[in-house]
Specification:
The structure is a single chain. By secondary structure, the chain is of the alpha+beta class. The chain has one domain: L-fuculose-1-phosphate Aldolase (3-Layer(aba) Sandwich). It is about 35% helix and about 20% strand. The protein is built from five helices and nine strands. It has a nine-stranded mixed β-sheet with strand order 4-3-2-1-5-9-8-7-6, sandwiched between helices. A hairpin with a 3-residue loop joins strand 8 and strand 9. Helix 2 runs parallel beside helix 4 and helix 3 crosses helix 5. The chain is globular, with a radius of gyration of 16 Å. The mean pLDDT is about 95. Its EC number is 4.2.1.109.
Length: about 210
């Protein structure tokens, strides 16, 4: 299969943006140590993504590499083990330009201690930070998938859930973390910040009973 070439300038811009956003996310405590992965679409056939095993608090432009939409590395380096979860979104959603995945305290505790297959966020003003949400009087259902090392199977499970109309803004992996996506890196970070804040609020509310 032939792939459209991506521009070097697009890659460099993506690498700068992902390194900067990664350090920002790390500073919020949502991506401890080498956890998490972030990506940006370069064109129809390629995405820039974090390399495997990189400390997100020290992320640099050289820690970003290119993959095709089948998740294969373009050039040297080993991409994130969860690359197929990013490329599934890019293949399915033509308007998806960025994907951010975090491993926060709140998402880990919520999904490990409450066994439901979804988490519902409702009535929060901050929901209006999500693309397309116009009012706090909104119910957002975030699917929770079981953790698996079979990333291809997990990506297929996400695809089936999206076929059913689930996972419109984000999804969670139990005991693992949050995935969210948007048209560009700024919108994606905005959604991530809103969702991580709301998950932390939801955790506190459940603790308080």
């Amino acid at each position: 299969m032939s792939h459209r070439p991506y521009s070097t300038s697009a890659y460099r811009e993506a690498a700068r943006a992902l390194a900067a956003i990664g350090r920002r996310i790390y500073g919020q405590g949502w991506s401890p140590a080498t956890s998490s992965n972030y990506s940006l679409r370069l064109n129809e056939d390629h995405a820039a993504i974090t390399r495997s095993g990189r400390d997100k608090g020290l992320l640099e432009e050289t820690d970003i590499m290119v993959v095709d939409m089948e998740g294969a590395a373009v050039g040297d380096g080993k991409p994130s083990a969860e690359t197929l979860l990013h490329t599934q979104l890019y293949r399915r959603l033509p308007d998806c330009g960025a994907v951010l995945h975090t491993h926060s305290h709140a998402s880990t505790v919520l999904t490990m201690h409450w066994p439901a297959d979804h988490i519902t966020l409702e009535g929060y003003e901050l929901l209006k930070a999500l693309d397309g949400v116009q009012t706090h009087d909104t119910r957002l259902t975030i699917p929770v998938f079981e953790n698996s090392q079979d990333i291809a199977a997990l990506a297929a499970e996400v695809d089936r859930a999206m076929d059913a109309g689930d996972a419109g803004h984000a999804y969670l992996i139990r005991g693992h973390g949050l995935y969210t996506w948007a048209a560009d890196i700024g919108a994606c970070y905005r959604q991530l910040e809103a969702l991580e804040t709301l998950l932390a609020v939801e955790l506190d509310r459940r603790r308080l009973g």
